[in-house]
């Protein structure tokens, strides 16, 4: 690419065309540059890439809540709002330039499109839907059209339970995201969660969980459409309706395309479809998304960038100025304007007109908490401090605002609220000359945000990921050989996940009251795959060493664990044996064990109850003596005398001596066997 002075190039195309990579490489060919990105998260990602290429001392990171600016910085990676206005550099790039059409932030992107220029080269990156309107507004622009590296195809409706791995499910409210994530946890083992309201560190941690393969599913809002590059093969919409800040409406085709385009990376093809109760896309929509033939942007959101600070009235009038071209639409109901009007028209604060630029700067503090009255109070207090004799926000006030935010206990919503709160004070601390001991408060707020972000990531993972089920389910589905380890404590570890404890030949699964039947099935299936060899080995040891014992609960034990129980047979001296083992024990080994235990039990009975058995072998001509012996045998060595009194009377005293020699006593009420059996 030739680079005449002040050249403007728009690099346009669908997602997965390498636009951002191209711009980074181009910027680093120059001695200086500014790169504006739509999200702090993406700014950090590009910053890290540039640091690897040219070194940390040459790259600055500038966002509302974070500033890393080395003295020798040549390249400034920024959020679009934080792009420095007074710095001259060779190269300027603005990513996702189609954000000019965003109702909330579009006027910022439009300002950068119209007013920011590199001394040598300016690049705008984004969707092809911007080509015609950029050509009308900036006719001198050269266009580079980028083609998608991979194919994008529609595959219709699929139930969540039938979605393939590497799928991102899209929802448009926090409640929907949580509900779907819980459903995926139950059916698939878990999902990572991506929402615009999460802090960058939490989002990165959730992305890492997905990218590492700990989970195969992602549940996200449309925040995923903004430059997050992940290994996603399928985008599945759970809804096509969203609340855009003013009303609930159906997604535009361009929005669906932007999100769907996250499926498939580099040369891997991607799929998109719908799930749950979501309506199917219309055939013409599908065709346009697959072929990237989308409607051009008709107008850009705009606000006057040349403001008049002579008086509050002049400032408001300049903000309300209407555009002179049909290509622009004046933004309405912007938060910063509304706060300014509220504070000035209602005389909520006192100030001189020379402080108007400062007041306007305070009104642009982001409302991370989305609480209007709280936000107005923050702006008022901050401005009053800056408008005081000290001209600084005092340490005591900053300390009070951060007090309690370093308590990292609470559920997901509580921690999310704390993160939003601390981001406000991180933004304030990072403003130049606003805060006493600013370096201290910058670091303090960053530490608190990082710790809260880690805690939020932990809570999201705990709530929506059962790593054990996820790992095992994935291994089973891919027919992978699962690595099974039996510890010295008989714990069964499969692919580093504790599945349960092996008691004898039976696996006791580890699960809680919240574990679903589908989870238990996965655990059992994984265990069966990995334990067959161990169980067969244990059977061989039992047979070879014969270290078993029968206990009073009618169970046969090996190493303090029951491996069989005896149940009713032909008679009480011929019981049957029932093996207590896991399903993973193969049939052949089970039959061998049954044969061994049956023989062992018969021998045990013969040895331990030999005297009782000998009763039926009694050699005596007296039929009454033999009859009494047989009944005593059948009744397990004890009879009520009243029931056999006639037989007893028929036996002489001399013949009764044989009974006594066998250990049988004829008492007043019972006849019983007295030998220790």
Structural class: alpha/beta
Task: Tally the structural domains.
Answer: 5
- Average pLDDT taken over every residue: 86
- Share of residues in strands: 15-25%
Number of strands: 29
Helicity, in percent? Answer: 40-55%
What is the overall number of helices?
A: 22
Main-sheet strand order equals 4-3-5-2-6-7-1-8
Shape: elongated
Radius of gyration: 39 Å
Please report the distance between the alpha carbons of the first and last residues: 101 Å
**Main sheet?**
8 strands, mixed
Uncertain segments: 513-518
Describe the 3D structure:
The protein is an alpha/beta fold and 677 residues long. The chain folds into five domains: 7-145, Rossmann fold, CATH 3.40.50; 152-298, Rossmann fold (3-Layer(aba) Sandwich), CATH 3.40.50.300; 304-464, no CATH class; 469-608, no CATH class; 611-673, no CATH class. Helix content is 40%, strand content 18%. The protein contains 22 helices and 29 strands. The chain has an eight-stranded mixed beta sheet with strand order 4-3-5-2-6-7-1-8, with helices on both faces. The protein has a six-stranded parallel beta sheet with strand order 9-16-13-10-12-11, sandwiched between helices. A four-stranded antiparallel beta sheet has the order 19-20-21-22. Helix 7 packs across helix 8 and helix 14 (412-429) runs antiparallel to helix 15. The longest helix has 29 residues, at 517-545. The chain is elongated. The termini are far apart.
């Amino acid at each position: 690419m030739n680079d005449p002075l002040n050249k403007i190039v728009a690099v346009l195309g669908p997602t997965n065309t390498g636009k951002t990579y191209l711009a980074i490489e181009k910027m680093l060919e120059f001695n200086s540059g500014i790169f504006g990105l739509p999200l702090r998260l993406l700014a950090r990602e590009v910053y890290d890439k540039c640091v690897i290429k040219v070194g940390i001392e040459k790259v600055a990171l500038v966002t509302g809540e974070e500033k890393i600016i080395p003295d020798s910085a040549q390249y400034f990676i920024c959020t679009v709002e934080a792009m420095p206005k007074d710095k001259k550099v060779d190269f300027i790039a603005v990513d996702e330039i189609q954000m000019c059409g965003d109702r909330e932030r579009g006027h910022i992107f439009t300002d950068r499109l119209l007013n920011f220029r590199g001394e040598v080269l300016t690049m705008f990156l984004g969707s092809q839907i911007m080509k015609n309107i950029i050509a009308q507004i900036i006719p001198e622009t050269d266009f580079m059209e980028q083609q998608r590296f991979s194919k994008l195809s529609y595959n219709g409706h699929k139930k969540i339970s039938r979605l393939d791995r590497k799928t991102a499910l899209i929802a448009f409210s926090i409640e929907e995201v949580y509900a779907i994530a819980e459903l995926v946890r139950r059916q698939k083992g878990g999902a990572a969660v991506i929402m615009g309201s999460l802090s960058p560190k939490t989002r990165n941690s959730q992305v890492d969980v997905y990218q590492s393969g700990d989970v195969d599913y992602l549940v996200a809002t449309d925040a995923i459409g903004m430059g997050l590059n992940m290994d996603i093969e399928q985008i599945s919409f759970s809804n096509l309706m969203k609340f855009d800040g003013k009303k609930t409406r159906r997604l535009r085709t361009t929005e669906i395309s932007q999100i769907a385009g996250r499926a498939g990376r580099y040369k891997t093809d991607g799929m998109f479809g719908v799930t749950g109760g979501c309506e199917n896309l219309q055939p013409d929509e599908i065709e346009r998304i697959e072929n990237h033939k989308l409607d051009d942007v008709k107008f850009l959101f705009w606000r006057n960038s040349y403001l008049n600070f002579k008086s509050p009235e002049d400032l408001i009038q300049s903000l309300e100025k209407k555009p002179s071209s049909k290509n622009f639409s004046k933004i309405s109901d912007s938060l910063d304007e509304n706060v300014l009007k509220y504070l000035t028209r209602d005389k909520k604060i006192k100030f001189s007109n020379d402080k108007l630029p400062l007041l306007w700067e305070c009104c642009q503090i982001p409302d991370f908490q989305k609480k209007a009255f709280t936000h107005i109070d923050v702006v008022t207090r901050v401005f009053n401090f800056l408008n005081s004799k000290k001209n600084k926000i005092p340490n005591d006030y900053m300390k009070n605002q951060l007090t309690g935010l370093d308590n990292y206990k609470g559920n997901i919503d509580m921690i999310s609220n704390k993160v939003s709160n601390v981001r406000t004070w991180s933004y304030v601390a990072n403003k130049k000359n606003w805060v006493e001991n600013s370096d201290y408060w910058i670091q303090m707020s960053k530490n608190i945000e990082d710790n809260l972000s880690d805690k939020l990531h932990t809570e999201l993972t705990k709530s929506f990921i059962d790593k054990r089920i996820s790992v095992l389910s994935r291994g089973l589905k891919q027919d992978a050989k699962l690595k099974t380890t039996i510890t010295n404590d008989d714990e069964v570890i499969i692919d580093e996940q504790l599945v349960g404890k092996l008691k004898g030949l039976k696996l006791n699964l580890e699960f809680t009251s919240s574990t679903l039947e589908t989870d238990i099935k996965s655990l059992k299936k994984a265990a069966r795959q990995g334990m067959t060899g161990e169980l067969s080995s244990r059977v061989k040891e039992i047979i070879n060493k014969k270290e078993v014992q029968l206990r009073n609960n009618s169970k046969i034990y090996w190493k303090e664990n029951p491996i069989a129980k005896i149940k009713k047979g032909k008679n009480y001296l011929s019981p049957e044996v029932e093996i207590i083992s896991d399903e993973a024990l193969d049939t052949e080994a089970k039959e061998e064990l049954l044969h061994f235990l049956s023989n062992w039990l018969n021998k045990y009975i013969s040895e331990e109850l030999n005297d009782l058995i000998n009763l039926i072998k009694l050699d005596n001509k007296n039929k009454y003596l033999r009859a009494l012996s047989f009944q005593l045998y059948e009744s397990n060595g004890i009879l009520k005398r009243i029931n056999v009194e006639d037989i007893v009377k028929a036996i002489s005293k001399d013949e009764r001596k044989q009974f006594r020699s066998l250990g049988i006593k004829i008492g007043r009420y019972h006849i019983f066997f007295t030998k220790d059996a």
